Amino acid sequence: MEKIIDSLIQKIRVCKNPSVIGLDTDIEYLASDHQLDSLEKKCNAILDYNKQMIDVLCDIVPAVKVQIAYYEVFGASGMDVFAKTLQYAKQKGLYTIADAKRGDIGATAKMYAKAFLEIGAPFECDFLTVNGYLGTDGLQPFVDICKKNNKGLFVLVKTSNPSGAEIQNLVANKSTIYQIMADITKDLGKDQLGKYGYSNIGAVVGCTHPTQAEQMRQEYPAMFMLVPGYGAQGGSAQDAKLCFDAKGDGAIVNSSRGILCAYKNPKYQGLGIFEAARSAALDMQKDLA
Amino acid sequence: MEKIIDSLIQKIRVCKNPSVIGLDTDIEYLASDHQLDSLEKKCNAILDYNKQMIDVLCDIVPAVKVQIAYYEVFGASGMDVFAKTLQYAKQKGLYTIADAKRGDIGATAKMYAKAFLEIGAPFECDFLTVNGYLGTDGLQPFVDICKKNNKGLFVLVKTSNPSGAEIQNLVANKSTIYQIMADITKDLGKDQLGKYGYSNIGAVVGCTHPTQAEQMRQEYPAMFMLVPGYGAQGGSAQDAKLCFDAKGDGAIVNSSRGILCAYKNPKYQGLGIFEAARSAALDMQKDLA
Question: Against a cut of 0.90, is the pTM above it?
Answer without folding.
Answer: yes
